[in-house]
Design brief:
This protein has about 350 residues and is of the alpha/beta class. It has eight helices and 17 strands.
Length: about 350
């Protein structure tokens, strides 16, 4: 299929710029693959679609403040977005404006942290070596800002009010540069309600990286490859999900990142196996899902790998029809937006 098959018109005013005051008060478009239909619901209704014996799987990765504001020796302001650590203190980054940076250029981040540009690639990535005598992670936590996606507009000088809201309530393991946004709707109360009906809640970790939101730059979606992301499944979760799969009980993934981790391990090992690994699976039309039975996900960008994954699971025609409906009735889109449940 062509990437143009995953296009839809979205009025800018439907792109959510702020989180709702109550996380669980979002709308939820319930999509039923069996009846080829969908209905408008509320996220608070989620427990009505679950049943005793189901396993609900969360991604407990924790976003770190990966946006750093610095100055060059000439006083020019630059923004450095940490993407991945390639070796100790050396990071692959995205820089804005990148044209100001060349190998050897020095950047100061307010006294506690300095850096030097090592290399600049043709695709705009910038390799930077940081210098500090203190804990790098602690300094980044102190001076960094929440790495919001570009469609959420914030002034660089504004207070970082998103540090808590752009984080799931169950976030534990630091390492993501973007939130697993389907999980932003949950509260401790919602999780407790789900557990009380006999649903097992399990956790995995997949550190969301640049690959999750990297634009698709090919015409044929089969030619696109999502960059690998590190994941971990602990012994308890592997046992829970293996037993559920053997007993033919449903596994519900919260988010495309959870889906990618679970499908990767089942594709690789033919079961849920505990351990760390690299999720290098790119899900495109024709892929046969082996790990999950239902998916809770937010609404994704046109032409994105996440929309491709979602429509591969739900069916292209049905999901694109559901998206057009969501636009027509004013659902809120993207990270701080509403959600979709596909059963």
């Amino acid at each position: 299929m062509l990437v143009s098959d995953f296009e839809f018109e979205l009025p800018p005013e439907l792109i959510a710029q702020e989180p709702l005051a109550e996380r669980e008060s979002s709308r939820m478009l319930a999509v039923d693959r069996a009846s080829n239909s969908f209905s408008d619901r509320d996220f608070r209704d989620l427990h009505q679609f679950l049943q005793k014996g189901d396993s609900l799987v969360l991604n407990n990765t924790k976003v770190f403040p990966a946006r750093l504001m610095g100055q060059t020796g000439t006083g020019a302001n630059v923004e450095i977005f940490l993407v991945s650590e390639t070796e100790s203190f050396v990071w692959e980054t995205l820089a804005r404006p990148a044209k100001r940076l060349r190998p050897g250029k020095r950047i100061d981040f307010g006294g506690k942290l300095a850096a030097e540009v090592v290399e600049k690639s043709s695709d705009g990535r910038v390799q930077i070596r940081f210098e500090t005598t203190d804990s790098f992670d602690e300094i980044v936590d102190e001076i960094g800002k929440t790495p919001l996606p570009p469609y959420i507009k914030r002034q660089a000088s504004a207070i970082d009010a998103d540090r808590q809201s752009y984080q799931t309530v169950y976030a534990k393991n630091r390492g993501a540069i973007a939130a697993p946004t389907a999980g932003l709707h949950f509260t401790p109360g919602v999780l407790e309600t789900i557990k009380n009906i006999g649903v097992t809640v399990a956790e995995i970790t997949l550190h969301v990286g640049y690959g999750t939101f990297e634009p698709v730059r090919v015409n044929d979606i089969a030619d696109h490859r999502v960059l690998p992301e590190s994941y971990e499944i602990n012994d308890e979760t592997a046992e829970i999900l293996s037993r559920a799969r053997a007993d033919r009980r449903r596994i519900i993934a919260v988010g495309t990142t959870t889906t990618r981790a679970l499908e990767t391990t089942v594709t690789r090992f033919d079961d849920f196996v505990a351990g760390s690994g690299s999720a290098d699976l790119t899900i495109t039309p024709g892929y046969k899902f082996r790990a999950i039975d239902a998916l809770l996900t937010n609404f994704h960008l046109p032409r994105s790998s996440l929309l491709v994954l979602t429509s591969t699971f739900g069916g292209h025609e049905l999901i694109m029809s559901a998206y057009r409906h969501a636009v027509g009735v004013g659902y809120r889109f993207y990270s701080y937006g509403d959600c979709m449940l596909i059963v």
